[in-house]
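pasting for the record
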Amino acid sequence: MNEFDEKYVAPAPARWTGNGAVPASAHDAPAATDDAIPCYLAFAPVEDGPTRARLGKLVALARGGMGWKEALESTEEAGMRAYVTDMRRAGFLELLPLGAQSDILEIGPGLGQFTVALAQRSRHVHALEVVPEQAEFALVRARQEGARNVSIAIGGDDCRLPYRDASFDGVVLNLVFEWCGSRIESESHGAAQTRLLHEMVRVLKPGGFLYLATKNRFALRLLLGGADEHMANVRFGSALPRRLGAWRLRRKGQQRAMGKLYSHDDLREQLHRAGLGDVESFWAAPEMRFPTHYVPTDAASVRAARAAPGLRQGEGRKVNLLMRFVPAAWVRHVMPGLAFLARKGGAGAAGSDLRRAGSAD
């Protein structure tokens, strides 16, 4: 274990070596090397065989001398390559109070699209990924890009964090929260997500920040009848009243949604209840996956952004057109996603150095 593991990480019950998880107490358990990733999974991976085979091939090619970029180009479709490599997607990093002494937790790094950029702005990044092969690839990518200040673990499928209290200066959760709880059949998504919020506050130092970006339950696209991937592509999806949405799911033969979305005000209130303050929200325009602008959601900031050239207000033609007519004070309620930046209370919370382009409310 390196010094950061000793400082932050609870002992792992297993190590993942690419051939599966080996109990850490086993006689032949591997040493903690780049090829042996701490594994805290509570459940077996749920990805199907073809998905795991594709990701396994991606890791093998990246390790085998091809390099992570070339491996992506040879195995992934253009849309996924852009999602993983286009650093214009990392504009939210400019919102974060990162520094040379910052220790950061990234939950759900995927294929490492933001991990190295975070590491370049911080002292150390711990990344927790639920898909073992994605964790392997993210670590290979970090090492090949020279980021030695990155540690990766596998876990979080039970919405619990294997880190000690008050370990991190910041936690980053980008387009992951909506999926949390999907692998736990014994409790509701809401209960699992609430636990994760409290877990993230627990591992933050007093005055530490949380950046949480997720999809919006009442995004204009859904209000106009768009299909919702979290609701079996039901039209209107999460924007429907909860009971009606559950009935629609059952009509399609599904008993459980693949995630849960929230409104702006609901999620903001949940952040407060979890122990976070100084809550700011941002409009990621034109949409959350490939944003070009991050605009504070107070009316004055929205009006100023609309007056400046180059702002596209929605992903599709219809949404882009109709968003222009949404009153500035209402944008936060129908924007495609929710991006929140908040502080944990306690020592250091006063005199917050969060960027303040305008109040969230």
